[in-house]
Amino acid sequence: MAASAGGARAEDTARPFLAYLASWTEVKTDDPEATRLARLPGYITHVALGFTRPDLAYDGNLDLSRTGLLFPFSGQVLKGAIATLHQRHPTVRVLVSVGGWGHFGWDARNFEALARLVKDLGADGVDLDYETPDSGCTRTPDGRVACADDARAIAVLADLRRVLPRPYVVSVAGWSVGAYGEGTFATAEPRYGPYVGMMLAVLRSPQARGIDLVSIMAYDAGPTFRPEQAFRAYRHLWKGPLALGIPVMPSESGGPRFTVERTARQFLEVLGDPQGGAMLYAIGLEPPGPPGPDNPDYRSLALTICVSLGLKDCAAPMP
């Protein structure tokens, strides 16, 4: 399996910590400084605002009503919150996340409107969360993986980078089993399903040079899935910053709960990689039941990740 050249720039080689912010959970306010976004700690390197639709409509004037974002405040407040966060923590990159489960309008994608939204908000780029109901991945007789969605997924990435050239940031969220299916990882569990290998063609393509960060949605893949193995599989393909994902909510597919102890242990694999880091999904989500070490909320998980990765200022409060 050929490894692609990573698209990371020299200044982006520190350990990444990307945290999604669930827009529908934000504080209802007219004061940008009171938003959860504006009060995030500086140990987060990227915050991804979830989620805009690929086929969003945005005509300007910070009107978010047809974008897919569900913030309980205006676009003017969101822009002010981003500016406040940048003022407090100049190195934090704010990304508008496009896609996510249920937002499947990729053939009608309107990335020109997305680029206008990013620029009007004063954001730093886009997080591409390319998901489809079925990527149609199968193994060919010669042991390769081919997916019905390969050409479209590559075109989506190319179109996004075309409208937002560097220095705008493009991060990509990878499916849990997206780097499985071939070579050393041909028999990695779970072995079967329409998403096994869905990221192989994208990360091998020349368009992958336009990616600045890859995060792995290393959860909701069933009890046989091993996140540390997924990290190794993605690293085989991608040589830039790579973030291992941790969920706040319990698994919907029978996988183990990410307790505080298990989360800390999970990053032992990452610590051996100088560009290894973390992704948290998501700030604002609250697990069922009272929070504790065996049922951590996003604040506990963020602190655990910060300490486990040896980041600075981990005592800074998470709103």
Task: Provide the descriptors you would attach to this structure in a database record.
319 residues, alpha/beta, TIM Barrel, eight-stranded parallel barrel, two-stranded antiparallel ribbon, 18% strand, globular, GH, GH18 domain-containing protein, Glyco_hydro18_cat
What would you say this structure looks like, in words?
This is GH18 domain-containing protein. The chain has 319 residues and is α/β, with parallel strands linked by helices. The chain has a single domain (10-309), classed as Alpha-Beta Barrel (TIM Barrel). It is built from seven helices and ten strands. The strands form two sheets. An eight-stranded parallel β-barrel has the order 1-2-3-4-7-8-9-10, surrounded by five helices. It has a two-stranded antiparallel sheet with strand order 5-6. α6 (260-271) runs parallel beside α7. The longest helix is centred in the first third of the chain and has 14 residues, at 75-88. The protein is globular and about 60 Å long. The N and C termini lie far apart (43 Å). Mean pLDDT is 94; it is low at 1-13.
In CATH, the architecture is: Alpha-Beta Barrel
Instruction: Give the low-pLDDT segments.
Output: 1-13
The helix content, as a percent range, equals 10-25%
Our count of helices gives 7
First CA to last CA: what distance? 43 Å
- Share of residues in strands: 15-25%
> Mind describing the biggest β-sheet?
8 strands, parallel, barrel
CATH topology: TIM Barrel
Tell me how many strands there are.
10
CATH C-level: Alpha Beta
Annotated CATH homologous superfamily: Glycosidases
Strand neighbour order, sheet with most strands: 1-2-3-4-7-8-9-10
Shape: globular
- Provide the succession of SSEs: EEHEHEEEHEHEHEHEH
Total domains, how many? Answer: 1
The pLDDT mean sits at 94
Question: Whole-number radius of gyration?
Answer: 18 Å
Q: Briefly note the structural class of the backbone.
A: alpha/beta
Protein name: GH18 domain-containing protein
Pfam family, one: Glyco_hydro_18
Organism: Xanthobacter dioxanivorans
InterPro entries: GH (IPR017853), Glyco_hydro18_cat (IPR001223)
